[in-house]
């Protein structure tokens, strides 16, 4: 029987374990070991694994109508778009559906280009995807270098520092930002930064574009993370948790931005697939105000439990998107050893472990996961604590 490395391009390396099933916030590997999933497919499985309502909705939809392309309408796509517009808070906004966060950011890039202005500002250390347009927006030179030349016109500013912005003129089309930089190590924007960007954009006629690919769909305790700052961008991109585990992305645009792309300007064959939208419709139904309040509460429980560990220097982030800053640069080792302790985690930086568990994780699972994480840190730390 072929193995992963026999058939898959080496873009990810070879995974340490093979997962075969999942239920709620737990998964089982090919050796029969059960793990508490503190990663959720990198913030994708918002409602956990095998959520009954998602399973039912997807099963019924695939048996009814599986794919139509965007040459024809279907009710699930209309319902999900209407739900997102309602959450966004502007009835005149419009939605473009695609399959991933990268694709959503590509759509936003084209919206910015369609303004007729040539300059786009993006944050240093930001991450917006790995296709060429999204990669051009990604403020990490090591990720771009191999694939240069990049699409032109992107300039970079220091994340969180409004004074670092290059001079603004009437040729600046858009300012891209993440409310929390996930791939950099779960780094939230400083208080007031989003409001400052919103003000700059208003003063200069610039589009404010928020990448909510990781932070959206309730991950931070609000449906959109920008809502913590009482601002609303002109364009928001999202994916990950939206499809309930199925591949789905969306780009929401308001005002003039909603009208910039016209027939023939952009498209996506699978975008707004009825089956994926059936799952997303469940996600929107489940993630209500009470659910969001629970995300906030459980996020605080997880934070406080983590702060009790002597190996932990600090915990940053919001809701159930947390970066655990370690006193030693052992995060990568911790990831490698984590399955032996019954948890799945991620390390975007040597000192930082990223936790993005399913939003339905229970209090008991949080307590148990932190206990396992504590044992793991004891095993990989060099110092005695």
Would you mind describing this structure in some detail?
Strand 1 (19-23) and strand 2 (26-29) form a beta hairpin. With 385 residues, the protein is α/β, with parallel strands linked by helices. It starts with a helix and ends in a 5-residue tail after the last helix. It is 33% helix and 19% strand. The protein has helices at residues 4-7, 40-43, 52-64, 75-88, 101-113, 132-137, 141-144, 193-204, 274-286, 289-307, 331-337, 363-380; strands at residues 19-23, 26-29, 34-37, 94-98, 119-123, 154-157, 172-177, 180-181, 187-188, 207-211, 235-238, 249-253, 312-318, 321-326, 343-344, 346-349, 352-355. The chain has twelve helices and 17 strands. It is globular and about 55 Å long. The longest helix is centred in the C-terminal third of the chain and has 19 residues, at 289-307. Strands 4-12-11-10-7-5-6 form a seven-stranded mixed sheet, sandwiched between helices. A four-stranded mixed sheet has the order 1-2-3-15. Strands 13-14-17-16 form a four-stranded antiparallel sheet, covered by helices on one side. Helix 4 packs parallel to helix 9. It has two domains: 4-50 and 289-380, Aspartate Aminotransferase, domain 1; 65-286, Type I PLP-dependent aspartate aminotransferase-like (Major domain) (Aspartate Aminotransferase, domain 2).
For the secondary structure, the number of strands is 17
CATH class of the largest domain: Alpha Beta
Spell the H/E element sequence: HEEEHHHEHEHHEEEEHEEEHHEEHEEEH
First-residue to last-residue Cα separation: 45 Å
CATH architecture of the largest domain: 3-Layer(aba) Sandwich
Overall geometry: globular
Give unreliable regions as ranges.
Answer: none
The total number of structural domains is: 2
């Amino acid at each position: 029987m072929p193995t992963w490395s026999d058939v898959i391009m080496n873009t990810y390396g070879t995974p340490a374990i093979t997962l075969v099933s999942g239920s709620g916030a737990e998964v089982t590997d090919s050796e029969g070991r059960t793990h508490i999933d503190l990663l959720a497919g990198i913030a994708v499985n918002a409602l956990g694994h095998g959520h009954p309502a998602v399973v039912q909705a997807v099963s019924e939809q695939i048996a009814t109508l599986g794919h139509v392309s965007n040459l024809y309408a279907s009710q699930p796509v209309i319902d999900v778009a209407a739900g997102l517009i309602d959450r966004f808070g502007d009835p005149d906004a419009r939605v473009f559906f695609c399959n991933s966060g990268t694709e959503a950011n590509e759509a936003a890039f084209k919206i910015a280009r369609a303004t007729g202005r040539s300059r786009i500002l993006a944050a240093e250390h930001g991450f917006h995807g790995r296709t060429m347009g999204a990669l051009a927006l990604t403020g990490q030179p090591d990720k771009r270098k191999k694939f240069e030349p990049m699409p032109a016109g992107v300039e970079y500013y220091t994340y969180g520092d409004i004074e670092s912005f290059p001079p603004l003129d009437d040729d600046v089309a858009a300012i891209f930002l993440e409310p929390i930089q996930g791939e950099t190590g779960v780094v939230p924007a400083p208080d007031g930064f989003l409001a400052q960007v919103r003000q700059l954009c208003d003063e200069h006629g610039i589009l404010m574009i928020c990448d909510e690919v990781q932070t959206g769909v309730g991950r931070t305790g609000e449906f959109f993370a920008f809502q913590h700052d009482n601002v609303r961008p002109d364009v928001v991109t999202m994916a990950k948790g939206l499809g309930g585990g199925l591949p789905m992305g969306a780009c929401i645009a308001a005002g003039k931005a909603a009208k910039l792309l016209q027939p023939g300007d952009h498209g996506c064959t699978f975008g707004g697939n009825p089956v994926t939208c059936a799952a997303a419709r469940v996600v929107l139904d489940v993630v209500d105000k009470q659910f969001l309040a629970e995300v906030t509460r459980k996020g605080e429980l997880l934070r406080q439990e983590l702060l009790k560990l002597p190996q932990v220097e600090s915990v940053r982030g919001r809701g159930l998107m947390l970066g655990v800053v370690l006193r030693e640069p052992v995060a990568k080792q911790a990831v490698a050893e984590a399955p032996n302790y019954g948890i799945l985690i991620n390390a975007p930086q040597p000192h930082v472990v990223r936790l993005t568990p399913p939003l339905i994780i229970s209090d008991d699972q949080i307590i148990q996961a932190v206990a396992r994480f504590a044992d793991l840190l004891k095993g990989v730390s060099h110092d005695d604590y």
